[in-house]
Each structure stands twice: as structure tokens, then as C-alpha cells.
Description:
By secondary structure, this protein is of the alpha/beta class. It has three domains: 1-147, HUPs (Rossmann fold); 150-225, Orthogonal Bundle (Glutamyl-tRNA Synthetase, domain 2), CATH 1.10.1160.10; 229-429, CATH 2.40.240.10. It has eleven helices and 24 strands. The strands form six sheets. Strands 9-22-23-24-20-21-10 form a seven-stranded mixed sheet. It has a seven-stranded mixed sheet with strand order 18-15-16-17-11-14-19. Strand 16 (298-308) and strand 17 form a beta hairpin. Helix 5 packs across helix 6 (127-137) and helix 9 (192-202) crosses helix 10 (213-224). The longest helix has 13 residues, at 40-52. It is elongated and about 105 Å long. The two termini are 58 Å apart. It comes from Aegilops tauschii subsp. strangulata (Goatgrass). It catalyses: tRNA(Glu) + L-glutamate + ATP = L-glutamyl-tRNA(Glu) + AMP + diphosphate. Belongs to the class-I aminoacyl-tRNA synthetase family. Glutamate--tRNA ligase type 2 subfamily. InterPro entries: Gln/Glu-tRNA_Ligase, Glu/Gln-tRNA-synth_Ib_cat-dom, Glu/Gln-tRNA-synth_Ib_codon-bd, Rbsml_bL25/Gln-tRNA_synth_N, Ribosomal_bL25/Gln-tRNA_synth, Rossmann-like_a/b/a_fold, tRNA-synt_1c_C2.
Amino acid sequence: MEMAESLIKQGKAYVDDxxxxxxxxxxxxxxxxKRRNSTVEExxxxxxxxxxxxxxxxxCCVRGKLDMQDPNKSLRDPVYYRCNPDPHHRVGSKxxxxxxxxxxCPFVDALEGVTHALRSSEYHDxxxxxxxxxxxxxxxxxxxxxxxRLNMVYTVLSKRKLLWFVQNNMVEDWTDAxxxxxxxxVRRGLKIxxxxxxxxxxxxxxxxxxxxxxxxxxxxxxxxxxxxxxHTAVLKDKRVLLTLTNGPEExxxxxxxxxxxHEGAGKKATTFANRIWLEYADASVVSVGEEVTLxxxxxxxxxxxxxxxxxxxxxxxxxHLEGSVKMTKLKLTWLSDIEDLVSLSLVDFDYLINKKxxxxxxxxxxxxxxxxxxxxxxxxxxxxxNVKKGEVIQLERKGYYRCDVPFIRSSKPIMLFAIPDGxxxxxxxx
Length: 430
């Protein structure tokens, strides 16, 4: 406020009561305001009205006296201060006038000892204004270093647009896993190290770039894959029972590593029984007499396929543990049919908008993706009771997941969020 008053006294700023729309058109046309050449006394008198928040004060604003003919319109007497008597959410009614960004940024940067102000390239046309205001203030020059904003495909990054999704309950909140906020992508399963590595690989480019998400998720996979524990799950509504005629009479348990190449992932208890669940997708492609590999167990030969109206309902087979796993085409994940299996909810996400790049004149509301979240119920191995909130695991042959809601009680499923691995263009939802 002292700086604004000082500029008024030096004749480098003036108080203007031109109506908003008229001021806008005068700036566009390079027409000087009728108040531009008011005396210092007149300006100070109106400034006082603004500071006190009077009715007269609310009709006024402070403008810099720069150059109304400059081809760069940001230099055509920009607004420095506005009068707003409404209480502020932090300081209450202490102030009735507030500076604009254009006025506050150069002042604060110079005052706080900033040497280089990092600004995204959409402010390029305002750089001359920034330097001119610093000059008029008599403050030291702060260098502006420009960089282009990082834009991602199928994504809106504008906080105003993201707020619309929150307010209209299209997402849970600002930490929703579909959101391009840091909390959102971390909740989806991104490791902060991957984000840092991704940003460092970009560098500070001045070119406008539209980035694919795949690159970020590929970096993430390289971080999580070597260390995350492996588990098994089958879809609840799409599973088929395989009865092994020569399987163990009584179920038995073996302790296996959660990750074959990383001891730090710990151990898991795997139950072996003569009745096991397979994914329907696997059961529907096996044929009678075919030898398949049951992962972490050994080979089995399919002896009988029971169907109902073309749908596979049950399989019968026998273990052939001396068979070579190298000779089989199908390597199947399975779960023993035991009561200890845990309920899972596997959540898959898609982009909030269905257009890769929105043009300037396009409304994001016209390009909303109708289905951005899909949930599938599944059964998981009993060891998943110990998976902690935020932990990343791999479900064998399904992909990587982050635990959003851990095991609380048997009736409440563990909620796992699917993490893209960079291979698919989108975690598209059918």
C-alpha cells in the first residue's frame, strides 16, 4: 500500500473510476482515461476513499501510468489496486483494498530476494509489464525464466475445471485416483520417485508439449516391479472349479516367497488342495487331454470339461507333477477352494475426458467420458489380509494394484486400485 501511494505521489499511478467495460474497450483501442491526468491531490483523495472502503472508493481502482499506445496491451495502464470491502477469509476487514497479481508479483519477488522468477510461457506477453513495474517501483531487476506448462493427454489441469468435477460429485474429492493432482496419482499407485524422475527427464523446455501418461507409468513400473509382493486373485463371478482326482486328500500349506527375486518382500503361505478355482477366461480355452501348468505347483492334465449351454461350469483333471513346465502353453493362476479366501474389490479407472487434446475453443463439458470407474469383485489369497493401505502389490497375470482400503473384516472387501503399467494406451473400461 505504501508503494502504491508512493507511485501515486510520483505521478506514476492514478486512481480511475471508469466503468469496467468502458475501461476494457479503451485499453483495447488505446484511448486514455479521462482520469489519467488528474492531479496528485485528486488521486490521493480518491485513494483514501478506496482505503476506507467507502461507496465512492468501491467505484475506483488504481492504474499504472505506463503507455496507452504500446502495441503490447499489458502495458496499457494495467490495474494495480482494487477496492473490495468484503471481509477476507484470513485477515477479516483489516483491509479494504487489495493489489492485483500484476502489481504484487514483481514487488514481492524483488522484496523477498528472488533472483529468477520461474513463470510458465503463457505469461510471456506480460514479461515487459513485470520489468516496467519493477523499474517504476525503483526496485532491483528480477530475471524471468520461462518454461512451458506440462500438458497431459486426455487430461484437464485447470483447477477451475477440476473444481467442477468435485462440486458435481463426478469424483470423490481432490485426492480421487482419476485426478491429475499429486495426491490423486499417488493414490492411483504412482511412486513419488517416478514422478521426480519423469519431471527431471522432461527438463525445463519452452516448447509446448503434450505428454503421454504411458511414459510416467512405465517409469513407475520399473520402480515397483522389482520389490512388490506377488499375490493371486480370481474374479468372483467368473471362476470355474477344477477338481484334481489325484490331488492331496487333505489341504496342505507351503511357505513361498512373495517375490522370487526380492527377499525383502517377505513370505506367504500357499494352500494346496484337490479343489481349486481358475479364472473363467482360462477355463474356457483349455481342451480335454491338454497339459497345463498350475503356477507354483506343477503340471496337470485336463480330463473332463463340463458345460451348460456352451458355458464351462466345471473341470476335472489330474496332477502330473513330473511333467515339464516348458512344454505347456498355458500357465494358470489358481486358488484353493478354502474358506480363508478374502473378498477383493478391483477398481479400474479411465480418463475423465475422452478427447486426447482439447482445443482452445472446445468445452471440456462436451467431452466428458461417461464411464470412468469400473469395479469387479474377486477372491484373493488369505495372505492379502496383511496388505497395508498404500502398499503396491502385483496380482499374478492381472497387473499391479495399490491397496486403498486394507482388510478390516471378512464382510468388507479389500479395495485395490489398478495401476497402469505404461503398456496400454489407457486403462480403458469396456
